[in-house]
Amino acid sequence: MATAQSLPLQIGITGGIGSGKSIVCKVFACLGISIYDADTRAKWLTNHHPEIKSKVIGLLGDEAYNIHGQYNRPYVASRVFDNEPLLKELNKIIHPVVFQDTEEWIAGKAGEPYVIKEAALMKAAGDGNTLDYVVVVQAPEAIRIQRILHRDNRSEPEIRAIIARQVSDETRAAIADFTILNDGDTALIPQVLDLHKQFMALARASTGWD
Question: Where, in this chain's numbering, is ATP bound (predicted)?
C-alpha cells in the first residue's frame, strides 16, 4: 500500500448524455474504486452550501430557491437557457465550490491506488484541473437517444436539443487518454477490466502503491 501521504491517481470519466458513463463508473466501483460523481455532488452543494445559495439568489433572485430552500431548477433553467453570459456567471459561482469539494474528497482517499471523477463536462487532464488521465465513454448518437427515451420522461426533440448543446463527440475525443465504446455490441466489462489493470500499473509506477 502507498504511504499515508500518497494521493491517488486521478482519473476523469466523461461522456455525452446516454453514453453510459455512469454504468462504467458502477463497474469500477464494483472493483473497489472510489467514485466522485461531480454532477450529483454539485446538485447537493447547490442545495446546501450557504455561499452558493447566497450568490445564486443575488444573481437570479429569490425565485432561484423555493419556499423550502430547495434549488428551483426549472426556474433557473428557464433563466439561463439560451443566455450564455448568465450561465457563465452561474457556473462561476458553483464550479469553484465543487472543485474545492473534490480536492477535499481526494485528500481523504490518500493511500488508494486511483480514484475516479465522473462529470458530464471535462477538460483534458492537466488543463486547469488535477486529473492525470481522462477516459471518454462513447456511443453512437442513435443508441444514446434510444437509451434516454427509455430512461427519462423526455421527447426525442428535447433529447436532440440537449445533445446539440453539449460538447461534440469530436471535442471529447480530442481530450481522451483512453476510450470506452459502449455501443451495446462491444463487451463493456472487459474494457473496464483492461483499464483497471492499466491504472493499477500506473499507480504503482507513479505513487509507489502496492
Answer: 18-23
